[in-house]
TrEMBL record:
Organism: Alkalispirochaeta americana
Full protein name: Transcriptional regulator, AbiEi antitoxin, Type IV TA system
Pfam families: AbiEi_4
Lineage: Bacteria, Pseudomonadati, Spirochaetota, Spirochaetia, Spirochaetales
Residues in AbiEi antitoxin N-terminal domain copies: 15-56
Amino acid sequence: MSREQTDKSALETMEKHGGQLRMAEALKEGIARRTLYRLVDEGKLERITRGVYRLAHLPEISYPDFVTVSVRAPKAVICLVSALSFHDLTTQVPHSVWIAIPRDSRPPRIDYPPISWIEVSGEAYDSGVERHFLDETEVRIYGPEKTLADCFKYRNKIGMDVVLEALNLYVRGSRQDIDSLLHFAEICRVSAVMKPYLEALV
């Protein structure tokens, strides 16, 4: 196969996979490392983080940090301040991407973006996960109610001021579901902590 045919085949394979592949996935599909490197040099692919490549002609990524983390760490769930930001429940600008990972699992090694993580197990890890397709990539993010419950649980990590601002914005919003919020507060074992603040607002 000529170099031109090799490159065309590689780009078609990328298209079939939504325009983005990890190095390991590309190798499984028969795309050689040198082909990836050459396509990057020619401006046909871009390397968005170590070991992750996407077609250069695709629209600019709207959530590049979330996409990068989700590709590199498929079991990670976006949580805490990062999830608050996604749901418009904070004025904070997260300095890292907060993720929840299964307890006893190894944190992902990612050069960029910086990540912060919590280890969660059982129902507290599995429940409340929403799946959003951002830039052709499935990104797992905790829903607003689960995120708020997590924020109360990890208030010492993110600051009580952040938690209370988020609760206030949630209660004032049009899509509140107090029953769901209390359900996740039970799962995260923060009902006793959350209820006084919630009762003062509703």
